[in-house]
Amino acid sequence: MDFLSGFFTGFLGQLQSPTLGFLIGGMIVAACNSQLQIPDAVYKFIVFMLLIKVGLSGGIAIRNANLAEMLLPAAFAVAVGLIIVFIGRYTLAKLPNVKVVDAIATAGLFGAVSGSTLAAALTLLEEQGIEYEAWAAALYPFMDIPALVGAIVLASIYTRKQRESFKEEFPSKQPVAAGDYAGEDNYPTTRQEYLNMQHGGASKKVEIWPIVKESLQGSALSALLLGLALGLLTRPESVYESFFNPLFRGLLSILMLVMGMEATARLGELRKVAQWYAVYAFIAPLLHGFIAFGFGMIAHALTGFSLGGVVILSVIAASSSDISGPPTLRAGIPSANPSAYIGASTAVGTPVAIAIGIPLYIGLAQAFMGG
Amino acid sequence: MDFLSGFFTGFLGQLQSPTLGFLIGGMIVAACNSQLQIPDAVYKFIVFMLLIKVGLSGGIAIRNANLAEMLLPAAFAVAVGLIIVFIGRYTLAKLPNVKVVDAIATAGLFGAVSGSTLAAALTLLEEQGIEYEAWAAALYPFMDIPALVGAIVLASIYTRKQRESFKEEFPSKQPVAAGDYAGEDNYPTTRQEYLNMQHGGASKKVEIWPIVKESLQGSALSALLLGLALGLLTRPESVYESFFNPLFRGLLSILMLVMGMEATARLGELRKVAQWYAVYAFIAPLLHGFIAFGFGMIAHALTGFSLGGVVILSVIAASSSDISGPPTLRAGIPSANPSAYIGASTAVGTPVAIAIGIPLYIGLAQAFMGG
Amino acid sequence: MDFLSGFFTGFLGQLQSPTLGFLIGGMIVAACNSQLQIPDAVYKFIVFMLLIKVGLSGGIAIRNANLAEMLLPAAFAVAVGLIIVFIGRYTLAKLPNVKVVDAIATAGLFGAVSGSTLAAALTLLEEQGIEYEAWAAALYPFMDIPALVGAIVLASIYTRKQRESFKEEFPSKQPVAAGDYAGEDNYPTTRQEYLNMQHGGASKKVEIWPIVKESLQGSALSALLLGLALGLLTRPESVYESFFNPLFRGLLSILMLVMGMEATARLGELRKVAQWYAVYAFIAPLLHGFIAFGFGMIAHALTGFSLGGVVILSVIAASSSDISGPPTLRAGIPSANPSAYIGASTAVGTPVAIAIGIPLYIGLAQAFMGG
C-alpha cells in the first residue's frame, strides 16, 4: 500500500498548490455570484506572456542542447507527443457523451510535459545511481510543443468540419473557430451531435493545410512559436531571467483564477462523463510512458541512448502539463471545457505519473540493466 | 517640544515617500490638464492585484498564528475595528457639510492598520525591553479586514437608503451602488441633503442582509476575501513571495497616481470641511488606541495577555492604513473622495499615531508594570 | 581593419540582443499574417511604465549629482541635445522623399543617450587611466531629455503647420496631432508634399507656445516629466528599484515586438530613402561627438572640466538611445515610422559610435593631454 499513500500525499499536495488553489478559488468566487472580473485586455496579455515564456524556455533549452547527439531521441519525443494526441482523439473522444474538443484538449495536456514530475524523476534517478545523458532533460520541448500544436490543429480541423456541416443545416449561426483567444463557445459538440450531423450531410472533404496554417496564425500558436524562435535564434536570457520567468507563476495563478470562474458554469457538462475522464487519466499516463519506453529502447539499441535516458523519455511522456498546457489550450482551443482537462490532469494524471509511473519505469530499466 | 519635532520629521518623511509623492504627482498632472491616463482595464487589474495581496498576506499571517492562544485578543481586535468605523459614522459623518460616504471611508482607513506604524512600535518595544507574545503582530488582519469590510457595508447601506428615498422623489436618476469598482459618482450625499431627503419621505426600513451580501459580492470585497481564503487554506507562499508581494509597492504607486489625478477635481469639495477632517485625524488615533488599550487590559486580566501585547493592540488601533486601505476603499466605496481619507490619514493621522500614540501607550504600559 | 572587425562584432551582437530580436520577431509575426496582438490598453500602460522609468532614472541621477559644480557642462549638454535635433531637422529632413516627422524622430533618437555606449566608454577610460569627474556620467539626462522633448515639440509644430495648411485646402479631414499615444497616422508628410502645400496657401504664422504647451500636456511628455519631477523631488528609490527598473527591459521587449509588428507594414515607405538614413546614421554620431567635444573644451578652458569628462560628453552626444528613445518617440510622435529611427540607430548609429566614436574622442583627448 506504499504507492497508495504516496498517491494520496501527492493528491493532497496538488490541492494546496497555488495553481489548483487559484482554480478552486475562481470556481467558488463564481459560485458566489461575485462581480469579480479580470478585464479582457489584461487577460489576453497574461495569456500572451505565458505563451511567450513557454516558447522561450523551450527554445533556450533546445539551443543549449547537443542536437546532433540527441537527434534520434528528440525525433522519438516528437513522435510520442503526436501519438499521445491521436490516442486521445480515437479513444477518449469516442466515448459516449464526451465532447470531442474537450477530449482533444485533454489529450494535448497529457502529451505536454510537467516540469515538476520531470524534476521528481531526475532526483530519484540520481538517488538510485542510474546514469543518464546531461541533455536528456532537454528532450521535453520536443514532446511538449508538438503535442500542444497537434492538439490545437486537430481541434481546428474538427471544429471546421463541424462548422461546414452545421452551416449547411443552419446557415445563420457562426461557431467560433479554434485558434483564437477566448470567446464563450457553447457550441454543441458531443459525439452524438457530431454523428447526427454526419448523417445530416457534410461528409465532404475538408482541406487540412489551410486549417493548419490558420491554427499557426492564431494568437496562441503565434505567441508560442515566436517565443520558440526567439529562444532558439537570439540571446533572450537577460530578459527571460529578469521578466518572463519571474512573472510566470504569478500570471499563471491569475489565469487559473479566470479558468476557475469559467469552470463553475461548465462543471455540469462533465457530470455524465466524469468517470470516462477518471479512467483515461489513470490509464493514459502509464500507457504513454510504456510507448515512450519502447521508443527509448529502440534508441538504446541503435545509438546507445542510456537506460536512464529511456526512463526520462518515459516520464516526460507519462507526465501531463500544469504549466505550458493550460494557457496554450485555453487560448488555442477556447471551446474546450477547462474543467475537463485540468481536472483530469491535476486530480488523477499527475499523482498517477509520479506515484506509479516513475517507480515503474525505473524498475523496468533496472530489470534491463540486470539482464 | 520633543514630540513636535518628531511629528514634523514624520510629516516631512511622509511627503517624500513614493506613496504620497505619486499622489501629489497625479494631482499636479491633472491640474496641468495633461492627457496622461491609465487605461481603465489596467487600472481595474491593478486594484485586483492590490486587494488579492492584502487578503493573501492577512490569510497567511492568520494561518501561521497560534489561533487558540490568541483567541480573545483577536476577537477584541475585530471588535475594535468595527467600533472605530461606527465612531466615525456617528461623529465625523454628523458634522456639518461632511459627506457621509467620505466620513465612513475615512473611518474605515483609520480602522485599517499601517504596517510601518506597527513596525515602529515593535522596534521601540524591543529597545525598551518590554516583552510581548510572538503572535501579537499577527493580530493586525483581525482589525484591518473587519474595519474595511465594515466601512464598505456601512457605506452600501447608506447609499442604498439614499437611493431608495431618491427614487421616490426623482425616479429617473440612478446613483451607482458602493461595492463596484470605479465610476464617477458625484451623487450629493452631505448630511444636510440626507436630512432633507429624510423629510421628503423614505424613512421606511431598508433590509440590511441583502446589502451585506451584495457588498461581499462586489469586486472589491470578493478579491479581498478570495485572497484571505487562499492565504488561509492553501499554500500560496511561493506565488505570494515571487509575484504579489514584490509588485505591490509599485502597483500601489500607480494607484496613488490615479487617485491623485481624480483628487484634483474633488479637492474643492473639501474646502469647507477640511478643519473637521484635521480635528478627527488628530483625535481619532489617540482615542482608538485608548479603546484598544482598555480591551487589551481586559485580556491581560483574564488570560494573561502581556502588557507589550496590549501596547501592540493599541498601536494597531491607533494606526491608519496607507497600504491596504486606499485600494480597498477606492474600489469598495467609489463615491467617496480619496482626498478626504488619504489626506486625513497621511497628513495628520499617521504622524500623530507614531509621534504621540506609540510613546503614550508604552508609557501607560510601563506605569501598569510599575504598579 | 581593427575597427571594421570591431564594427561587425558590435553589429552582430546588436542583432542577437533581445531588444532587436523582439523587433525582428514582431516584423516576422506580422509578415506571416498572425493574429497575435497586444491589447491597446496594455500597450498604453507599457508605454507609460517605460516613460515613467526613463524620467525617474533621469531625475534620480540629477538629484544625486553635484549641480553647482556641473552647471556649465550640464548647460552645454542641454545645448548639444537641442542642436542635434535641429541639425537633423535641417539636413536629414530636407533630403528628397524623406518624411519630415521620420527625420525629426531619428534626430531625437540620435540626440538621446545610450546607457550601454556610455558604459563602454567609461570602461575604456578607466583602462587607459584617464581621469574624469565622478558626476560626469550624470550629464546624460541633461542631453537625453531635452533632445526627446525638443524632437516632439518640433514634430508637433511641423504637424500643426501641416494641419493648418491642409485644413484650408481640405477642411474635412483631421490628421492626428503629435503628442498623443498611438493612432495610425498615415498623413502624407514628405518634404515634397509639404512644399506643395506651402504653395497652395498657409504661409501664415503658426503660434509656437500653444504647441509647446500642448506637447508637454500630451501623454508621452507628461509621463516623462512626471517621472523626472518625482525622481528629483521625492525619494522614489524603493519603488524604482523594486518595480519600475526590474520591469523595464521586459516591457521594452514587448514594446519592440509591437513596433516590429507595425514596422512590417511601413517598411516599404523606406525603400527609396534607406540610403539617406544610412548616410545620416554613419556621419551624425561622429559629428555630434565633435560638436560636444568643442563645447567640452570650452568648459575645460573656463572651469577646468577634465579631459576625461570632455570625452564622456562627446560619447553621450555620439550615442543614440535604444532605451529611452523608442518608447518616448513612439508615444510622442506617433506618425513617425519606427523602422526609420530604430533601424538607423541600431543597425548603423550605435556600432559607429562604439567602434569609431569612442576610440576617436579618447585619442583626441590624449593628443590634448600630450600637448
Q: Can you describe this structure?
A:
Three copies of one chain form a homotrimer. The first copy, chain A, is built from 15 helices and no strands. Chain A is mostly helical and 371 residues long. The first copy, chain A, has a single domain (2-370), classed as Na+/H+ antiporter like fold, CATH 1.20.1530. The radius of gyration of chain A is 20 Å and the shape is globular. Chains in contact: A-B, A-C, B-C. Chains A, B, C: InterPro entries: Sbt_1.
Which key phrases capture this entry?
homotrimer; 371 residues; mainly alpha; Na+/H+ antiporter like fold; 15 helices; 0% strand; globular; Sodium-dependent bicarbonate transport family permease (chains A, B, C); membrane (chains A, B, C)
Helix run count of chain A? 15
Mean pLDDT of chain A: 82
- CATH third-level topology of chain A: Na+/H+ antiporter like fold
Helix content of chain A: over 70%
Q: Name the CATH architecture of chain A.
A: Up-down Bundle
Give the biggest beta sheet of chain A.
Answer: none
Total separate domains of chain A: 1
Protein name (chains A, B, C): Sodium-dependent bicarbonate transport family permease
Pfam family, one (chains A, B, C): Sbt_1
Organism (chains A, B, C): Cyanobacterium stanieri LEGE 03274
Transmembrane segments (chains A, B, C): 6-30, 42-62, 74-92, 104-125, 137-158, 277-295, 340-362
SSE topology:
The structure is a homotrimer of 371-residue chains.
Chain A: H1 2-16, H2 18-31, H3 40-63, H4 71-90, H5 100-111, H6 115-127, H7 140-169, H8 191-200, H9 208-217, H10 219-233, H11 237-266, H12 274-303, H13 307-318, H14 325-332, H15 338-370
Helix pairs in contact in A: 1-15, 2-11, 3-7, 3-10, 3-11, 4-5, 4-7, 4-12, 5-7, 5-15, 6-13, 6-15, 7-8, 7-9, 7-14, 10-14, 12-13, 12-15, 13-15
Transmembrane segments (chains A, B, C): 6-30, 42-62, 74-92, 104-125, 137-158, 277-295, 340-362
Pfam families (chains A, B, C): Sbt_1
InterPro entries (chains A, B, C): Sbt_1 (IPR010293)
